[in-house]
# Entry
Amino acid sequence: MNADTLNAIDAVQTRCIAALDAQDMAGWLATFSTDPAAAYICISAENEQRGLSIALMLDDSRARLEDRVSIVTKVWAGTFQAYRTRHFFQRLTCREANQDRFEVTSNFSIAMTPEGGVSTLLTTGVYHDLIEVAPAGALLRQRRAIYDADALPRYVVFPF
# Structure
């Protein structure tokens, strides 16, 4: 693995969280592979450790990722208290899974500020990503966001 590969991996992770912080769901979707098997799963550490497949968000195909964007931008628009997020991540490990695919583990923390409110920590956790790297750049094939909190301090609209 060379520096260009690591830069591409870091760039797609940065684009992903920048899109979420900007509440740009189309931008978030653009960080995922167009492969039909692309997936995003957000699950509590408790459920992950117990082997329970009960997830907060279970978008196990590209079609469901596209549905997530429609739900947030069209169905739920104007029905929730607005809030801003700030994501922070740190890549911990990166290993080649097979040609042009890399398994990446990163810690994350997410601060949130409700409209007119005070900033608080929403949650912390770990991303387990499968990232495809091509000459044109990198894309997420799978993102598994495992959050540490047993109970979140509020409802969640946007992915982690």
The first strand starts at residue 39 and ends at 44. The chain has a mean pLDDT of 94. The CA atoms of residues 107 and 145 lie 9 Å apart. Helices lie at 3-21, 25-29, 45-49, 62-75.
